[in-house]
Specification:
With 236 residues, the chain is an alpha/beta fold. Helix content is 40%, strand content 16%. 14% of the residues are buried.
Length: 236
């Protein structure tokens, strides 16, 4: 009887010892968001932004203000004679940004010379060709053997700057966005909106949106919530 009591005490002590073991971390699928977050923060994010618009609309100023960095420290502004003879080219500037431990590899693709010539018929051809080349490059890297260190240079978003001094979209704006909207997320931006009154801004914005809708152009809608959220949450 004593031996049985002793074995019972030993078993209870072993159970206590076993139950008091602490695991180093929670094990289960509820810990998956933390794992994804750690991996994302450690690896960082890549984002490529293209800014398109005529010269003097404040593209560089807006980008520098958005990301609180000077992306064009050595930029030379051409005079009127150089602008008239200048063709559209693409300048890609990459900068590493870190905020609150989150790293972002930002690439801004500028398009100097767009819309500055007298005849702008083919001014957007170089831009479309550049975007297609980045898609082909990414597909080629994805089809290769070393897929771990792929640099994503695809254009994720395009800020298209609209002049505030006109009465809506120009034919060049409409044609370019028609060529682009199936390839890139377009965000139309009314440049230098502070030169207009609130009523003028609302009137110009409505005119631009009506022209975009009538021409069948798809722009990026800024969502309040994800498309896969339930209907009750969407209503809230």
């Amino acid at each position: 009887m004593k031996t049985e009591g002793k074995s019972a005490n030993m078993s209870s002590e072993s159970v206590k010892t076993f139950s008091s073991l602490e695991t180093p971390g929670y094990v289960g699928f509820a810990n998956l968001p933390n794992q994804v977050h750690r991996k994302s923060v450690k690896k960082g994010f890549e984002f490529t932004l293209m800014v398109v618009g005529e010269s003097g609309l404040g593209k560089s100023t807006l980008v520098n203000s958005l990301f609180l960095t000077d992306l064009y420290p050595e930029r030379v502004i051409p005079d009127a004679v150089e602008k008239s003879n200048k063709t559209v080219k693409l300048d890609a500037s990459t900068v590493e940004i870190e905020e609150r431990g989150v790293k972002l590899r930002l690439t801004v693709v500028d398009t100097p010379g767009y819309g500055d010539a007298i005849d702008n018929t083919d001014s957007f051809r170089a831009i479309i060709q550049y975007i297609d080349e980045q898609f082909e490059r990414f597909l080629r890297d994805e089809s290769g053997l070393n897929r771990r260190n792929i640099v994503d240079n695809r254009i994720h978003c395009c800020f298209y700057f609209i002049s505030p001094f006109g009465h809506g979209l120009k034919p060049l704006d409409i044609e370019f966005m028609k060529q682009l909207h199936n390839k890139v997320n377009i965000v139309p931006v009314i440049a230098k909106a502070d030169v207009l009154t609130k009523k003028e801004v609302q009137r110009l914005k409505k005119r631009v949106m009506d022209e975009i809708t009538s021409n069948g152009i798809k722009i990026y809608p800024l969502p309040d919530c994800d498309s896969d959220e339930d209907e009750d949450y969407k209503e809230q």
